[in-house]
Amino acid sequence: MEIREAVPTDAARIHDIALTSWMDTYEEIYSERSKAHFVQEAYPQEEVVRAIRTAEEARGEYFNVGLIDGEIVGFIHAIDVEGTWEIVRLYVLPKYQQNGIGRRLIRELELQGASPIEVYVESRNYKARHFLTSYGFKEISETTEEVFGQVEPVTRLQRIY
Residue 136: how many CA atoms within 13 Å on its side-chain side? Predict the structure, then answer.
């Protein structure tokens, strides 16, 4: 597996990975209305390009992709929020999950000096919560958030070295 910085020409592939992974993960959690709203509103390519360009230009932002045989199969986007790195996007295509790709993407972020790292996950996303806690993240708190017209409990996790 190779990890590299995302470039604007990756935006279409990143969009497709986010959409495929999100729909697979949240199939049973979100209503049909919320899923339709996500498909319509989430990850427009111009927003992905903007985030990639911002990460290229700023020290407080990180956007990398993971590749297998030259094909992007996952990505991570994190931002520095007052000294704490927040993972705002971490997706791996379902058929490549549980192969260490998510761990490698987070590890690369850590090698760049990111610490502490936080992530917010829908509380009913048990697969992501298990993945993160097995990697050393601790559950810190829970709140609620409206996501695409649906109120969901959200768990905040943090990893400190």
Answer: 10
Place of tokens 């094909």: 71
Which of 88, 73, 55 lies closest to 14, judged by CA?
73
Q: Give the pLDDT score at 33.
A: 79
Q: Which domains does the chain have, with CATH numbers?
A: 2-116 (3.40.630.30)
Q: Is the pTM of this model over 0.85?
A: yes
Three-state secondary structure of 18-36: HHHHHHHHHCCCCCHHHHH
